[in-house]
Amino acid sequence: xxxIIKAADLKVLVPEEASEVIRPVVDLESSSKExxxxxxxxxxxILEASDLISQAKAKAEAIVKAAEEExxxxxxxxxxxxxxxxxxxxxxxxxxxxxxxxxxGKARADQEAARLLNLLRDFVDKAAADRANALAKLEEDFxxxxxxxxxxxVRNTIKDDPAWLKPVIEEACQKLGTVDECIVRLSPVEYExxxxxxxxxxxxxVERLSLRPDPTLKPGDCVIETESGTVDxxxxxxxxxxxxxxxxxxxxxx
Length: 254
Description:
Blueprint: E1 2-7, E2 10-15, H1 28-31, H2 37-160, H3 166-174, E3 178-186, H4 188-194, E4 205-213, E5 222-226, E6 229-232, H5 235-252
Helix pairs in contact: 2-5
């Protein structure tokens, strides 16, 4: 594309990006002659056109430079805005991820806490059951030990006083009611201690009461025989019944 510049009768075609001015063809025959006024005028017009071209080129370069600077500024601004958007999106993603991770971690923590709480409850229940069983066993063992000690104490006592069995015989005979004959079997040692003593039978109706030694019995043993049956009033038997009663009390209280 070309611009048309008019100067007097001269028309000069000037390309926009041309660096040279296209001059008109000069007649060689007239070149040796002195330049006319018209030729000088034409020469001045060409110079003015060249200046206009330089000015236009400078303005174009300035416009291009300004456009480039503005484009660079817009590019920098776009990059900055894009970075801000990226950071904002990353921050939102981080916050969402953090919230999701926090919720998931809390759910896992709640599940683990519930599991540990159930384990703790099971442990406490088992410990309580074991403790109850241990206490029951301990009470039972303590009772048995107490009965053994009591039996030893009583047996040591009856060695010094064989007549201690007298109230036991009297109590057993009083519960018989009415019988024709009552035979009380004792160990030989206790028989010798009680054979000459009078027994008080209270309201019992016993026609004949007799004491007899029995070498198969040990100190503390006492067997009462009637026509209705036999009653074992031995020390060991009485302690056994006492132990059973105490054990029932222990287990009923649990």
